[in-house]
Amino acid sequence: MFSIGIVCVSLFYFLAGCCESEVVEEADMRHYSHLSLAGWHHEKNGSLDTNFITVPNLVAGSPSAEESSAPGWEANGLGKDWTAVRRLPQALIIGVKKGGTRALLEFLRLHPDIRALGSEPHFFDRHYSRGLNWYRSIMPKALDGQIVMEKTPRYFVTAETPARIHAMSKEIKLIVVVRDPITRAISDYTQIISKTPNIPSFENLTFKNRTTGQINSLWSPIWIGMYAQHLERWLTYFPLSQIHFVHGERLISDPAGELGRVQDFLGLQRIITDKHFYFNKTKGFPCLKKPEGSSKPHCLGKTKGRTHPKIDPEVIRRLRDFYHPHNQKFYQMAGQDFGWH
Questions:
Q1: Which of 98, 173, 195, 329 is catalytic?
Q2: How far, in Å, CA of 31 to CA of 190, rounded?
Q3: Is the separation of the CB atoms in 208 and 216 below 8 Å?
Q4: 121: CB partners within 8 A, 6+ apart
Q5: Residue 98 designated active-site
Q6: Which cysteines are joined by disulfide bonds (predicted)?
Q7: Using CA atoms, how far apart are residues 249 and 228, in angstroms rounded to an integer?
Q8: Please, what are the averages of pLDDT over each run of 10 residues along the chain (341 residues)?
Q9: With contact defined as beta carbons under 8 Å apart, do 38 and 63 qualify?
């Protein structure tokens, strides 16, 4: 009888333990299933809707040493918080003006592992005196593993910026969108006259002396297109392996191909593909089929794709002659021929 009593008591505790285990497991899983990850969304990939995601700790007791020491994780009563923080950028689109930098930035913001500032901060050329803490404070919050980036096309042609960026980070990745310098100059002029319509004609501003045909290389729309001269400064501080050139013409004709190469350069999975684009015949530019957070197609604003003024073919010919040696030197320095003949 004594033995039978022991067996009964043991059986009772065994069954009670199983039931309790099932109740605890069911309760934990029910808690897990009700957690909302709605905040895990990149609105235009410029800002996070929430700063953290709570993941339940399904194992009773304290977190392990490995868990508690993991960066970005903080233990609480129910689980852990993975917190997005502001960091200095790991990649920059540094140029060039009217090359397609805005299009590139908008396309890249589709990638879930890219956190890009929407506006141009002009930190390294205009606001450097504000310091790196200010620069970090305006960056979008990012999780570990996401790449923070911004674009300011003027960086490429500003003498002080390579040294300043190098002082911030020696490993930073630099992206330059280049375009036929003549087409770029005309696009630049088109933007200028939209704001100041009473300036002289493109032809008059292009030459120091129209009679002799001497090109005014100090006029900004011409000067910016002398890519080799600007690149030389960057190569003093950064190896060519840290600089990626986006072909501006191919960014229009084959956006998915160019974006694929940029994603490779940044060490990211090729998530942005041809399924994201369609060609808008009216604007003459590729547009996004479904940008982040929207079910409607999206093209760049009215300031993109303006109709260029017609330029005297003789002026175009003289500019071709002027840019030819600059282009050849740039091809040699960049290690690729962009075909601007």
A1: 98
A2: 59
A3: yes
A4: 127, 135, 138, 150, 152
A5: yes
A6: 287-299
A7: 18
A8: 48 43 34 31 38 30 32 36 88 97 93 96 98 98 97 98 98 98 97 93 93 93 98 98 97 93 98 78 70 59 67 96 98 97 78
A9: no
